[in-house]
Design a protein that fits this description.
52% helix; Phosphotransferase; alpha+beta; CotS-like
Length: 335
């Protein structure tokens, strides 16, 4: 496999975490050919992963690695058990530097992907546990990442593209004609709701008492272990941010617009963290934002963008029904 790590380099890195590798193989993700290295040892199987810097943050790779490791350590200290255990290196840190790149090592989780309503209830409980544990038990210091402001920026770019010269690609033109205006209308409605006094007050209170969010909850980042427990993997982007943005993103990125799965995730979440009507209204408004369309139309000539727009088109009726479901869920909340 191109650009894979050599056996000697893998051995050099994992030995700093007290491991003696017997064998190893590179595992691909949706975006990277060598996203993680599975390392088998006499004491178990582990994941060796290069830390990936978020381009959405102004800080450098090392600062982001240190911040993520500090947050993970705080969660482990508080007994949060919905993530693989990170190993400490021979320096006592949860990461090591090799050839100028930071790496970390966790236990390897065997299991399956999200499949049924029970899995989604468990994921909801895991998310609620993350938000409650970090908000109520940890001394939170650091910048608050504003997903909503970033999404407003993406929406402005999308609207500019909608008014520019028609793209050369026929498929993009047809998609824009059929769905572009609807995406703008959905966003307009959400931005109007986000300006309501009760939501403005809610967001202000959240900034004053923030929680940690994983910020990349997708189907690929959730594993149901052989014992039936959900594990959230890939904590490179853990940060202080909005739990409501995280819930909306998790619903979009894991449930495939299946109403049973959506209801199960929310049910599991509210077993630990009940949500009032304003909170539900905020989640529904954030869910309605056409974030996939914003992403796909940034680079319309890319094959991945055309594929994403096609998937958006194919799932359009399901998306509308999922928005209606959240509207009903909002109305069901007590005052």
């Amino acid at each position: 496999m191109a650009n894979s790590y050599s056996k000697s380099r893998i051995r050099q890195i994992v030995r700093r975490f007290g491991l003696i590798p017997l064998s190893s193989d590179s595992i691909a993700s949706f975006y990277r050919k060598n996203a993680v290295v599975r390392v088998r040892t006499g004491t178990g199987t582990y994941a060796m992963k290069p830390f990936l810097r978020s381009v959405l943050l102004p800080s450098g790779t090392m600062d982001q690695m240190k911040t993520a490791a500090n947050y993970v350590q705080l969660l482990m200290n508080c007994g949060f058990n919905y993530m693989p255990r990170w190993l400490a290196s021979n320096t006592g840190k949860l990461w090591t530097l090799n050839q100028g790149k930071p790496f970390y090592v966790t236990t390897w989780i065997n299991g399956k992907r999200l499949e049924n309503h029970e899995d989604f209830e468990n994921l909801g409980r895991a998310l609620a546990s993350l938000h409650i544990t970090s908000r109520d038990s940890l001394p939170m210091n650091g910048p608050f990442y504003d997903h909503i402001r970033f999404w407003q920026y993406r929406d402005r770019l999308f609207r500019r593209r909608m008014t520019q010269t028609k793209p050369a690609n026929r498929g993009i033109r047809q998609w824009r004609k059929r769905f572009g205006q609807s995406c703008i209308q959905f966003a307009d409605r959400s931005w109007t709701e986000l300006k309501s006094p009760e939501i403005v007050d809610l967001l202000g209170r959240e900034r004053n008492r923030p929680a940690l969010i994983h910020s990349d909850i997708t189907s690929l980042n959730v594993i149901i272990s052989d014992e039936g427990m959900p594990f959230i993997i890939d904590w490179d982007r853990v940060k202080l941010g909005s739990i409501y943005a995280e819930i909306a993103s998790a619903l979009m990125n894991t449930t495939q617009f299946n109403p049973d799965f959506m209801q199960s995730l929310l049910k599991g979440y509210e077993e630990l963290h009940p949500l009032d009507r304003t909170e539900r209204k905020l989640i529904a408004a954030l869910y309605r934002l056409p974030r996939e369309a914003w992403q796909a139309t940034r680079f319309p000539n890319r094959t991945s963008s055309r594929t994403l727009l096609k998937l958006t088109e194919q799932s359009w009726p399901l998306r509308l029904k999922s928005m209606d479901l959240l509207e009903e869920w909002t109305l069901q909340a007590g005052d």
